[in-house]
Write a structure and sequence with these properties.
- By secondary structure, the chain is mostly beta strands.
- The strands form seven sheets. A four-stranded antiparallel β-sheet has the order 3-2-1-28, with no helix packed on it.
- The longest helix has 8 residues.
- It starts with a helix and ends with a strand.
- About 45% of the residues are buried.
Length: about 375
């Protein structure tokens, strides 16, 4: 596709958002809300009522960016419970112990996913976050990841109008033990397989910050296969990344056209062809190395394709499955045969649910799930 006309039109725009347009009020909610949440301060069974059954394995957990909750979802029947965590939760990650770590506008919430209770919320220490609020331009936590040993949580913190921070939370003491400066709006955070490096994908500065886990030393690597023309007004920025198991390289999908394969040790990269021709956001890898990438829809409707899920084999062959409406993030079932794609989206057009995708047949079905769900994890 030719991008020159798009970049010229956007160069004059001053956009601070994920997709790259001028700031706007939060969009209206379009479908049924999540089930009523239980107050975070009420312990299970504290009133004498029977304690709810523990959360079944294989359930899904989504971050409700449109409210202050996370929602638990049965992948066959839909939402069945929600828990208050803090304002506008964005990303989340679940450890082997069943605790979920949720990046909200106020701090990192800790949730026991078995009993469905909020255990704590760790406030950020970075200055310049602003008051807790909703909307895609809010300050506070965005991308979040766990160290391989489960002892640290790394959260990318957006400081509106400036560079972000990576905050390190000790999972035993529930305290922030260190910070590192990163780029603008850290959409995603990933950790190397050996735990020695942390990668903050910085949407608005066209780069990834490589953070040494022990010393918190940083170095930036530009990730801009279309260049940086248009600055904050550009659509062509990095959003989410994944770390490839066998060689530790980072994969950044762009526009359903280009996959940047970056070696974080050397800073060198190459570009592989993609085929979906759609603006891309969330990504994940299945256990066999299949890459799943969410296509949110077109930049230019006259040239680009609609929303989709790209299924890319380790060898680079792609199958593109159409989706009904914009989506944001994705996770996969343990057997790698089913994808769960959140409808929250960080722009207009989001909806309150999950699309369940059979990766073999390409068939899809929708589940009601939460209030503008963004981050998602399989329990």
């Amino acid at each position: 596709m030719r991008r020159a006309a798009v970049l010229t039109a956007l160069a004059a725009a001053v956009a601070l958002g994920s997709g790259c347009a001028a700031p706007r009020p939060d969009a209206a909610r379009t479908t049924a809300p999540a089930p009523p949440s239980r107050p975070a301060s009420t312990a299970t069974g504290a009133t004498g009522a029977p304690a709810p059954a523990r959360t079944p394995a294989g359930s899904l957990l989504v971050a409700d960016f449109g409210s202050d909750t996370v929602t638990f979802v049965d992948p066959e029947r839909g939402a069945f419970d929600s828990v208050e965590v803090g304002t506008a939760p964005y990303g989340l990650v679940v450890g082997r112990d069943g605790r979920a770590w949720v990046a909200t506008a106020e701090g990192v919430a800790v949730v026991d996913t078995g009993t469905r209770e909020r255990l704590a919320r760790v406030p950020y220490v970075s200055q310049g976050i602003g008051k807790p609020e909703h909307g895609e331009y809010r300050g506070g936590g965005m991308g979040i990841a766990l160290s391989p040993d489960g002892r640290q949580v790394y959260v990318g913190v957006n400081r509106p109008g400036g560079n972000g921070a990576l905050e390190v939370v000790d999972t035993r003491t529930l305290e922030v033990t260190g910070t590192a400066e990163v780029g603008r709006r850290p959409f995603d955070v990933d950790v190397s397989r050996d735990g020695r490096e942390v990668y903050a994908t910085n949407h608005d500065s066209f780069d990834v910050t490589v953070v040494t886990a022990g010393s918190l030393r940083t170095r930036g690597i530009e990730v801009a296969p279309y260049g940086t023309e248009g600055g904050l007004g550009s659509w062509l920025k990095p959003h989410y990344a994944v770390v490839r198991d066998f060689d530790g390289k980072l994969l950044f999908p762009f526009e359903g056209e280009r996959l940047v394969v970056l070696d974080p040790r050397t800073g060198t990269s190459r570009v592989e062809r993609m085929t979906a021709d759609t603006h891309q956001h969330g990504a994940t890898l299945t256990d066999d190395g299949t890459l799943l990438v969410v296509g949110t829809g077109p930049i230019d409707p006259s040239r680009d394709e609609g929303p989709s899920l790209t299924v890319r084999s380790p060898g680079g062959q792609e199958k593109v499955i159409p989706l009904d409406g914009p989506h944001e993030d994705v996770t996969a079932s343990r057997d790698g045969r089913t994808a769960y794609v959140t409808g929250g989206f960080t722009r207009d057009g989001y909806w309150n649910g999950i699309t369940v995708v059979d990766l073999d047949s390409g068939t899809t079905r929708r589940l009601a799930a939460g209030d503008r769900p963004l981050g998602i994890a399989l329990l």
